[in-house]
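Shipment paperwork, digital attachment
Item: protein structure file
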Amino acid sequence: MKVATKECGILELDERQKITFPAGLLGFESLKDYVLHDAEQQPFYWLQSLDTEKVAFILLNPYVFRPDYESDFDNEELKMIGLNDSKNALVFSIVTIPSSGGIITANLQGPLIINKENHQGIQAVLTDARWTTKHDIQAELKGARKEK
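Attachment content:
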């Protein structure tokens, strides 16, 4: 399928890359359908809205920069997208890259959980005080290296 994207122009993507968020994402509840595709720079990904090319999110697997990330997902939320546990799930954090060139952060409090089998997703809201909406990715990576 051809998809108009915010950053990459028109892309030819596989139908299997389509992800549906039945409840939308926080602040974007009316936008339900997206495609997940690799960003030019790994380990990042794009989550591009199919409803409007102006809405796209940069994603990152939180375990890349926080190997100790623990996500206590609500089982009822997981069931909403057909998961009994998080074993068949992809987990991503939304990344913020300020246009002013400031600190690049990731939202560990509101991870995206995607069922690999049925391609449905939700945005969870975690209550663990360790996880905030603005984790400095570079500082976290430096901290992880020092611990090794």
